[in-house]
Amino acid sequence: MNLTPVAEADARLDATLSAMTDAQAAEPSRLPGWTRAMCATHIARNGDSNALMVEAALRGERRDQYPGGPGERAAGIEAGRDRSAAEVLADVREAAALWHRVFDRVTDWSVEVPAGVGMRPLAQRVASRLLEVEVHHADLGLGYTFRDWPLDFATEQVGYHVRRMTSGGQPGQWVVGGHVVDLGEGPTGRIAGDPRAVLAWLMGRETVVDAGLEVTGDARVVSIPEWFPFP
Cβ distance 230 to 203 under 8 Å? Predict the structure, then answer.
């Protein structure tokens, strides 16, 4: 399993956080209700919660990503609200180092762990971590945007998330970045554009207009992020 993309994403995030001031840390991020310090703290908690979960699996034990459930996750984010830039940077670095130490020990990537969204193979946890770091890096609102995401990362993630869209939306043939979401007989709508822009829209970070996407056919296709909200 190639962990290099995660290490490279960590390095880009580290560069951004290293330049963040205390004043910037206390300012709102692009996520409603979250300061930048909270957003970065969430990246850290995602890293060490995954690491501890996988470390338990390597011992043959089961450990939920957040043993305390959604409340633990929320409390971990809130704890970052008033932290200094230096505290946030140190926390993110420590969590990233732990993540890599644990994942470097994995030999069987098919083993499943009880992640917050259900049982997932360890291989998927690598892609999930990359998604967390890249998307929340852009959420900081400190100059790194979806346009800076690696193209290979965005292309793979668009395909993965579209494949998960199997029910719960409006009937029809919805074509997203070249991938078909078949929800039965009905109209056809298409969204096309740079995979990075498509992913930003799918993740609810950008509108089709702000992302520069092309919409053809049934305009209801632009509502897909509402039909299939991401956890």
Answer: yes
